[in-house]
């Protein structure tokens, strides 16, 4: 690599670095000497762009197009972009008009339909481009070809201003301004980056909007002027929930204020968001409260006008709040399952199903699915009386019992080891026990018969540490294989309260 002073064709002398073999450096030096320096080339390009921009601006004015808003540099670039866009869309309009006269278009209805649709989109784009007066919009879309612009028109995102928009002074592609009186200015947010504005005489009465401070201007009398783009979504906060409204709806609400304040506005239940924390609203009259023996505070929610009519579920009060009048809001996590009680069996309802049910309740209450609850017994046995199998506990009667030396099995899921070591069996009043006799036969025993047979040596729901009966120890017994048919198959086995 070597440095060499070059006298350029424009007369400027500069030192440049040349690399490669000597012959290649000499060839490069001769080429540079025959051309202008980079500064002159850039200046020439700037002049050419300025001249092209001025020609395009003059042509645009002659065509009756609106003057562009923006900085001088933005406007100069946008004039060229607008002219190129209009020329390209005009060429496409001519092309598709000719295609409609083609023989293929006349013979094939599907081809003609597609061409007519494209032509309508192109005409819509042309009408919209002739009305846009924001230089920034053309700069943001300078890489969009005619297909992209036509797609925007097909989606309704690029259309000429409607009569109503023109009358209201709303520009969907530029900046719009609104003035808020001093009494509607609530002050900056905590981080100071946004200004909070109150909405009064509004369809969103009592809500607030946090607007970027960089897009606001405060006058001496306390009024605030805000600017926002026509394509913005404006977040409206009711104090607990936030929804986005279109810039046009927001502009219409503030330019057509109601004569008198309306009722306080609250947003309805938001749509379900998979993988996120969600909320459901339930009528306040369907909610009561209770405390468990362990002191947990729960909300008891009765389901009315529901696919689970008459059933209920319990929800932690720490995840309950009152949001809008007449309703209670329940929050739940992404993997939440509601345990719905009161029917023939407990139901586990995933969050999205419960959200769907409460978002669109039935028009009137249906037939209740609630059933009369069974009486449940809690029978406590001393550990010396029981043995543990793989999926069950089993007890053996003495020789003087109703079923001498017989064994009774109970699912482990229906048994609980208490703090004092006793084992509590749970079963309802209609439970049928299967008693296995020493001869290998099976006898069915009702819950009442089982309670009577164990009344001399079992307790009923004792408090921890209060069990006083000490029965004789059982004799050693070889490991017992429990046949499946001896276990109760009641659907409430794993779902009893």
Written account of the structure:
The protein is an alpha+beta fold and 497 residues long. It has five domains: 2-36, no CATH class; 72-160, no CATH class; 168-255, no CATH class; 278-359, no CATH class; 376-486, no CATH class. Helices cover 28% and strands 26% of the residues. A five-stranded antiparallel β-sheet has the order 4-5-6-9-10. Helix 2 crosses helix 3 (72-100), helix 3 packs antiparallel against helix 5 and helix 5 (109-129) packs across helix 7. The protein is elongated. Mean pLDDT is 84; it is low at 461-474 and 488-497.
What's the short version?
With 497 residues, the protein is α+β, with helices and mostly antiparallel strands.
Features:
5 domains; disordered C terminus; alpha+beta; elongated; 11 helices; five-stranded antiparallel β-sheet; 497 residues; single chain; 28% helix
Question: What is this structure's SSE topology?
Answer:
Layout: E1 2-7, E2 13-18, H1 22-33, H2 38-62, H3 72-100, H4 103-107, H5 109-129, H6 135-140, H7 146-154, H8 163-168, E3 175-180, E4 185-188, E5 194-198, E6 208-212, E7 216-218, E8 224-229, E9 233-237, E10 242-246, H9 247-255, E11 278-283, E12 287-291, E13 297-302, E14 312-316, E15 320-321, E16 327-332, E17 337-341, E18 347-350, H10 351-359, E19 376-381, E20 386-388, E21 392-396, E22 407-411, E23 415-417, E24 423-428, E25 432-436, E26 442-446, H11 447-453, E27 459-460
Antiparallel strand pairs: 1-2, 3-8, 4-5, 5-6, 6-9, 7-8, 9-10, 11-16, 12-13, 13-14, 14-17, 15-16, 17-18, 19-24, 19-27, 20-21, 21-22, 22-25, 23-24, 25-26
Helix pairs in contact: 2-3, 3-5, 5-7
């Amino acid at each position: 690599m070597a440095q060499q002073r070059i006298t350029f064709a424009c007369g400027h002398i500069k030192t440049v670095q040349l690399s490669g073999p000597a012959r290649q450096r000499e060839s490069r030096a001769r080429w540079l000497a025959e051309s202008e320096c980079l500064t002159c080339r850039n200046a020439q390009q700037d002049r050419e762009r300025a001249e092209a921009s001025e020609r395009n601006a003059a042509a645009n004015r002659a065509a009756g197009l609106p003057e562009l808003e923006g900085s001088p540099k933005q406007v100069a670039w946008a004039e060229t972009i607008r002219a190129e866009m209009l020329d390209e869309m005009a060429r496409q309009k001519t092309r598709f008009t000719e295609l409609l006269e083609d023989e293929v278009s006349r013979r094939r209805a599907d081809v003609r339909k597609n061409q007519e649709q494209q032509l309508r989109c192109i005409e819509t784009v042309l009408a919209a481009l002739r009305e846009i007066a924001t230089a920034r919009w053309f700069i943001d879309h300078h890489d969009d070809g005619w297909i992209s612009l036509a797609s925007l028109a097909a989606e309704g995102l690029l259309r000429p201003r409607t009569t109503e928009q023109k009358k209201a002074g709303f520009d969907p592609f530029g900046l719009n301004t609104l003035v808020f009186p001093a009494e509607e200015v609530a002050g900056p947010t905590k981080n100071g980056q946004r200004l909070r504005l109150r909405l009064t005489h509004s369809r969103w009465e009592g809500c607030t909007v946090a607007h970027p401070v960089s897009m606001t201007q405060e006058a001496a009398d306390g009024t605030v002027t805000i600017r926002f783009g026509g394509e913005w979504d404006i977040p409206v906060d009711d104090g607990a929930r936030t929804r986005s409204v279109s810039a046009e709806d927001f502009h219409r609400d503030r330019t057509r204020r109601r004569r008198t304040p309306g009722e306080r506005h609250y947003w309805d239940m938001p749509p379900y968001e998979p993988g996120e924390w969600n909320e459901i609203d339930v009528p306040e009259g369907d909610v009561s409260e209770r405390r468990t023996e362990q002191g947990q505070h729960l909300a008891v929610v009765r389901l009315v006008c529901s696919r689970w009519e008459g059933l209920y579920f319990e929800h932690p009060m720490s995840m309950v709040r009152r949001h809008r009048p007449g309703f209670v809001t329940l929050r739940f996590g992404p993997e939440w399952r509601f345990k719905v009680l009161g029917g023939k069996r407990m139901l586990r309802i995933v969050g999205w199903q419960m959200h769907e049910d409460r978002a669109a309740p039935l028009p009137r209450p249906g037939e209740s699915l609630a059933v009369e609850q069974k009486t449940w017994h809690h029978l406590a046995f001393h550990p010396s009386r029981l043995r543990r199998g793989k999926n069950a506990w089993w007890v053996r009667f003495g020789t003087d019992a109703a079923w001498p030396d017989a064994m009774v099995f109970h699912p482990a899921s229906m048994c609980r080891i208490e703090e004092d070591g006793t084992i509590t069996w749970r079963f309802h009043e209609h439970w049928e026990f299967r008693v296995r006799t020493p001869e290998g036969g099976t006898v069915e025993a009702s819950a009442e018969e089982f309670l009577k047979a164990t009344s001399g040596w079992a307790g009923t729901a004792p408090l921890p540490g209060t069990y006083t009966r000490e029965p004789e120890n059982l004799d050693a017994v070889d490991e017992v294989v429990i046949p499946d048919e001896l276990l109760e198959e009641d659907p409430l086995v794993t779902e009893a309260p």
